[in-house]
Design brief:
Elements: H1 19-50, H2 55-61, H3 63-83, H4 85-102, H5 112-140, H6 147-178, H7 181-202, H8 224-244, H9 247-254, H10 260-284, H11 293-315, H12 321-350, H13 356-385, H14 387-405
Helix pairs in contact: 1-4, 1-5, 1-6, 1-7, 2-13, 3-4, 3-5, 3-13, 4-5, 4-7, 5-6, 5-13, 6-10, 6-12, 8-12, 8-13, 8-14, 10-12, 11-12, 11-14, 13-14
Length: about 400
């Protein structure tokens, strides 16, 4: 693996507008983008399921979305350090507008290849936006500030993002009920254009830009802590998406007869609750766990592995299927939210201030690989073997993630 040469500590962390104002602008950009991202996912799943596409084919629509995210995160951190996080964030907003606009064609022109290409563009946009927002936190909080405050800021950004992604699910389902697929994506493109103009005008021009230009070889992390956390993240998010991203909404629609509004509302409520718990994670954990987030992550991951296995067992019993899914999914979401929040804190904590976008970009590349694996497995396993098989594989993947977290250090 290439050697990661040090970069001079010259990342711009302050600007004339003040770090808090810039943090607020970064967060607002991230929020707006996230709403459209969640709404688009729900629109695509429900619209093309209604058009007769199989779960596996729907999963294939998202393959490029996840695959391009892998490369975007890997290269995005490098570009962020060289060009500045402001440019990377604004490019992400522009690409999402282009992706939404591409889906405004009539239904008979929306071939699988065209939709996959638009989703690829959206995947690039999403990961550029996310990497920029997460990196900006490390830059805008000075190293002298207490790590607990860093955890709270990371949790707030991550948790609020997921709550708004849930709102996006709900908005996507509502728009599909009220208007056409094409009109819905057009409305979102117009709203995001206004956000992009505001970001271009007010986001600090040098935010996150390093005067000492990093080498391309530095895109790969040589930190053992970051590598272990990245691999654990891969398996963790593959475990979530293997039953949540395709199998569950299609199951609710095709097997339980839920309409678009019900599916969208349920998924939205789950994501919103998930985001709220992520935001509260720094306050939920015991005070004794402060400074021992690596140990907490390991414990929560082992506990999480039991939940999808329990849901799978309950679905084979006489218990109500709907009740099992509702209770099981919210239980899974609560534990997963705390686990994910701990992960998000640890990567920002492990990342060096000089190479923050490189380290975080590498980490979220693994995150994207996990989502890609989970999406493909979700479509395939559900088509071939049903929802229970997705839950069993989910439990196995989480257990692997838990084993990896056993060796996470308290400090990088």
């Amino acid at each position: 693996m290439p050697t990661n040469a040090p970069v001079a500590p010259s990342v711009v962390s302050q600007n004339k507008n003040g770090s808090m104002a810039q943090y607020a602008l970064v967060t607002a950009n991230y929020w707006a983008f996230t709403v459209t991202d969640g709404a688009l996912r729900m629109l695509v799943i429900l619209h093309f399921a209604a058009q007769g596409l199989s779960p596996l084919n729907i999963a294939l629509l998202f393959v490029f979305y996840e695959l391009f995210g892998v490369f975007t995160n890997l290269l995005g951190g490098y570009l962020g350090a060289r060009l500045g996080l402001n440019k990377i964030m604004n490019i992400g907003l522009l690409l999402q507008i282009c992706a939404l606009s591409a889906l405004m064609l009539p239904n008979d022109m929306l071939s699988m290849v065209w939709v996959m290409a638009a989703q690829a563009l959206s995947g690039v946009a999403k990961d550029l936006n996310k990497m920029s927002a997460k990196s900006a936190i490390k830059i805008l909080i000075s190293p002298e500030q207490h790590q607990q405050r860093l955890f709270r800021w990371v949790a707030l950004l991550t948790g609020s993002k997921n709550a708004l992604k849930g709102l996006g699910f709900f908005i996507g389902a509502i728009l599909l009920n009220l208007t056409s697929f094409q009109t819905a994506v057009g409305i979102m493109a117009g709203a995001l254009l206004l956000v992009g103009i505001n970001s271009w005008l007010h986001l600090a021009k040098e935010l996150g830009k390093s005067k000492a230009k990093p080498k391309f070889s530095q895109i790969f992390s040589v930190s053992a802590a970051i590598n272990r956390l990245s691999i654990a993240r891969l398996f963790l998010f593959a475990a979530r998406d293997v039953w949540f991203v395709i199998a569950l909404p299609v199951y609710l629609s095709s097997q339980l007869g839920w309409d678009h509004y019900q599916v969208g509302s349920f998924m939205a409520l789950w994501i919103i609750a998930y985001g709220i718990i992520q935001t509260l994670a720094p306050y939920i954990r015991s005070k004794k766990a402060i400074g021992r987030e690596n140990i907490s992550t390991c414990r929560y991951t082992f506990f999480l592995a039991l939940i999808p296995l329990t849901i799978a067992f309950a679905l084979q019993s006489v218990v109500s299927i709907e009740l099992t899914i509702i209770i099981g999914l919210f239980g899974f979401g609560a534990v997963f939210a705390i686990n994910s929040s701990l992960h998000s804190y640890l990567i920002v904590h492990y990342a060096t201030s000089d190479n923050v976008s490189l380290d975080i970009g590498f980490y979220y590349m693994s995150n994207a690989m996990g989502r890609l694996l989970g999406t493909l497995l979700s479509g395939y396993l559900f088509t071939q073997y049903g929802l229970v098989s997705c839950l069993l594989v989910s439990g196995a993947l989480i257990f692997i993630s838990a084993i990896i977290t056993l060796r996470l250090p308290a400090k990088s």
